[in-house]
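Work through what follows:
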Amino acid sequence: MRSDEVDPVDARLGARLAELRAEHGWSLGELADRSGVSRSTLSRAERAETSPTTALLNRLCAVYGRTMSQLLSEVEAEPEAVVRSTAQPVWQDRASGFVRRSVSPPHSALRGELVEARLSPGADIAYDRPPVAGLEQHIWILEGALDVTAQDTEHHLGAGDCLRMRVWGPTRFRCAAREGVRYLLAVVRP
């Protein structure tokens, strides 16, 4: 690599550091005050003009409440652009009649994912809370019908219908079709 080229890992790390600061709603000055690192050093690290030192990353990890391993795992490799259908992981909960296929290429630094879901006739699944408060979900019914209850509002969805919601509390998914239901779930972390 030429000396004027940016290391791809440093570029992804800089972008991730900028994302974390934005997620917290902090200016460079606020982050500098919280971390004890100068604004100019933070700015150069976020723009990948310099490779961050271990000491700098340690200070930022402390501010963001994560381990260095966690941060680095988010940027070590680019996510695969394509995952073939035969390689998409499928998980099944036989007791509830729920089948989940992860459609999107997995990567911890990405905020969105697509999931194909199937519920057997009569399946009724209740979640007492979201895995992440404020999680955005888009539920697009491909076949069958589904009743979704969120924040005390019930939605009856048929083939072609799409529900968008932010999940803050309990939700319930009930298969309202004799033949079962197949739907696409787009999940976006806040």
